[in-house]
Amino acid sequence: MRITRQLLSWSFYDWASSPVPTLHTTFIFSVFFTTAVMPEGGSVAWAWMTAASAFVIAIAAPVLGRMADGRGAVKRCLFYATMIGAAATAGLWFVEPDPGFAMLALGLSALSILAMELSFVFYNAMLPSVAGPAEYGRASGLAWGVGYVGAIFALVVVLLLFVMPEEPAFGISREGAGHIRITMIFAALWLCLFAAPLFLFVHQPEPAPDPDPLGTQFRASLKTAMAIPGMPRFLLARMLFADALVTLFAFGGIYAATVFGFSQTKVLVFGIILNITAGLGAGFGGFADDRMGSIRVMRLCLVALAGLGVVAILAPSEPVFWAAGACLGMFIGPLQSSARAWVARAAPPSQRASLFGLMMFSGKATSFVGPLLYGVLVAATGTERAGMTVVIALLMASLLAMPQR
Q1: SS3 letters for the chain?
Q2: Which tens digits make up the pLDDT trace of 212-247?
Q3: Do residues 373 and 388 make contact, with C-beta atoms less than 8 angstroms apart?
Q4: Can you tell me the distance from the alpha carbon of 350 to that of 342, in angstroms, rounded to the nearest whole number?
């Protein structure tokens, strides 16, 4: 596969965007919210916010995807989503460690999640603009790998500049958790800076105008999707494993902090290790995808993730949890990358954003279920271990639903 300027520029959007959820919803702000902003009931409130955001994304993604295809506005929609996501993320700087700021934190977090998730409808639809069908697996894997490396760099930078030092960089004070809140501005600036090459060098996909009303267009896209061999089962499987990953990403840092007593610094170190293994997995997974096929790679990843998840839940000690968590990363990247490559190959050129919107719909239509059940189980049992069993159940259900080829 030849690395062109367009492919590299497109891949760098993964590098640009990955620190936002990494620092916001997984390893820093979510932990800050549940331990300092809203220590009483914070996990449950975060679960409800994540569930509500997923519900809105599920409704908006296929509609916006069809609109972007029809108007030739894929790149423009990606720009708007990126800017909204950056602004909402940066706004979290104003959230102080006080319950009075809980609603502001939840509102801005929901907007950030909404914008960043929707951006991937348009970003994924641009994959065929930078690679040929025979290279989709490697191109998608390259981008996921670059994204994980970007997350690692971002985690290391904030760890060394803001979280660990007694006197954080740039005169930031630890008072009022300033050294934690500044990471949200850092993530927003990182996004804006490194997303620029895509908007400068990647071509806008050709428009596919349709005179029919948007509702009619959506039904036509759904009909097209249902006629593609394996697509209905894939969308169901995608729905289930996306629910599992949403829950894992939303509560992974919280789980480590509450069950094993991880400090903020230790959560970040764990995040760095997880992203290293995920980046390696995404890179190797891209080559495996082009050789073995996307479905085989996804099925293998689901089996491995479920098994390692059981080990992490039952881990009797911190070292066992560290080992299981690090190995999980090897299979998260290929699972997501192969899903993108499979849809890129299967989708008609005129409806790529539409079908990626449907993929996002399948990933979000019920993704409130995982966080919701997590919150219910934690509230009922008083232990985060019980909540995390939801992830295993969803992964196994996805394996059963996945098409055979």
Answers
A1: CCCCHHHHHHHHHHHHHCHHHHHHHHHCHHHHHHHHHCCCCHHHHHHHHHHHHHHHHHHHHHHHHHHHHHHCCHHHHHHHHHHHHHHHHHHHHHCCCCHHHHHHHHHHHHHHHHHHHHHHHHHHHCHHHCCCHHHHHHHHHHHHHHHHHHHHHHHHHHHHHHHCCCCCHHHCCCHHHHHHHHHHHHHHHHHHHHHHHHHHHCCCCCCCCCCCCHHHHHHHHHHHHHHCCCHHHHHHHHHHHHHHHHHHHHHHHHHHHHHCCCCHHHHHHHHHHHHHHHHHHHHHHHHHHHHHCHHHHHHHHHHHHHHHHHHHHHCCCHHHHHHHHHHHHHHHHHHHHHHHHHHHHHCCHHHHHHHHHHHHHHHHCCCCHHHHHHHHHHHHHCCHHHHHHHHHHHHHHHHHHCCCC
A2: 555 666 676 677 777 888 888 998 898 889 888 878
A3: no
A4: 16
Per-residue pLDDT tens for 274-302?
Answer: 778 877 887 788 788 888 888 999 999 99
Domains of the chain, earliest start first: 7-203+211-401 (1.20.1250.20)
Determine phi and psi for 67, rounding to 5 degrees: -65, -40
Q: Which two tokens stand for residue 5?
A: 């300027």
Which residue has tokens 């929707």? 118
For 391, the token pair is: 């992830």
| Contact indicator for 197, 79 with CB cutoff of 8 Å | no
Length of the chain: 405
Structure tokens at 199: 């908007």
Q: What is the pTM of this model?
A: 0.77
The residue behind tokens 């479905």 is: 295
Provide the CB-side half-sphere exposure for 131 (13 A, CA). Answer: 28
In the chain, the amino acid numbered 316 is: P
CA dist., res. 375 & res. 369, Å (int): 10
Token pair belonging to 267: 């959560």
The CA distance from 85 to 108, in Å, is: 9
